């Protein structure tokens, strides 16, 4: 292992299934932990992942319609998203009966508590922010993710039902995320015992929340899990064409609805553009065939350059936010297992914290 005092610059190359991923300007003083998915190294991809990769383009076409449509029917799109994810909700309930669901008296959202949480992690909470391009999705549509994350990590998960665009544009969702985090602190939950997590737009919200908390001098959470993060609304133009799921035109429409009259360069709307120093440990997951893969790599490199502990796990040939298919796709469960291991490590750090 390199001497931590060295400040040399590395140009690190990772070989991913005969392809090369370049991560420039990585300093040895703060290691960037990179891991490969089982499908890249030893194990062939599952038939479920193959089926998912072939089915997703059709589902996306039915879901979003023509890429030339100037604006989506938001209400119809939300109803379809809820309907499409019904099987995942049922499967999650059947596969993880030990995870119970509860409402919250103050916050809009739902709790997912494994029966082991009270004994294992009395005060640990994952604050989960669902994806959906800021204008669709809910805790219900992402229950397959939150149930599996609660089961695998042994921790309570609170899925926030934040307000959506275009009815509630930026910064409404961010303000509600900060309110939820502060409410957890008011309940005497230690900040080091909270992990922010989210997928896609929700991952962007999680990063923006940490930047806002740091800049206001408030206590930071113990860490963050960013799954297929959409954290920079200024880079849509370079989204990959040959990708599984997501559509550049749909992303542009979503960004306009979310931002309304705010420029995409606002660092809380595009937190990847912010100064990212002094943040807690962060775990990032992406797929080499998703539209935001390059963004995720650059975010990890920037976090590392600015002195943070960051892990990035890059999976092969999976769609954007494949974690939503956890009940059906082994690679989704394995990826959430990686995230759960990171979360458990944060709990161990919190146990050793002198501020508890």
Tally of domains: 1
Shape: globular
Q: Please, what is the CATH homologous superfamily?
A: Alpha/Beta hydrolase fold, catalytic domain
Strand line-up of the largest beta sheet: 3-11-10-9-8-6-7-5-4
Structure classification: alpha/beta
Query: Level of helix content?
Result: 25-40%
Order of helices and strands: EEEHHHHEEHEHEHEHEHEHEH
- Low-confidence blocks of residues: 1-31, 36-43
Radius of gyration: 19 Å
Based on the structure given, which CATH architecture is correct?
Answer: 3-Layer(aba) Sandwich
Q: Quote the beta fraction.
A: 15-25%
Mind summarizing the main beta sheet?
Answer: 9 strands, mixed
Structure annotation, total helices: 11
Class in CATH?
Answer: Alpha Beta
* Chain-averaged pLDDT: 82
The CATH topology: Rossmann fold
Alpha-carbon distance between the two ends: 32 Å
Number of strands: 11
Main features:
38% helix, 356 residues, alpha/beta, nine-stranded mixed β-sheet, two-stranded antiparallel ribbon, single chain, disordered N terminus, Rossmann fold, globular
Structure description:
- This protein is of the alpha/beta class and 356 residues long.
- It has a single domain, classed as Alpha/Beta hydrolase fold, catalytic domain (Rossmann fold), CATH 3.40.50.
- Helices cover 38% and strands 19% of the residues.
- It has 11 helices and 11 strands.
- The protein has helices at 38-41, 47-64, 74-84, 86-95, 117-120, 143-153, 172-186, 201-215, 248-259, 293-305, 330-352, and strands at 9-16, 19-27, 32-36, 99-103, 109-114, 125-129, 156-160, 194-199, 223-227, 282-287, 310-315.
- Strands 3-11-10-9-8-6-7-5-4 form a 9-stranded mixed beta sheet, with helices on both faces.
- Helix 10 (293-305) links the parallel strand 10 (282-287) and strand 11.
- Residues 1-31 and 36-43 have low confidence and may be disordered.
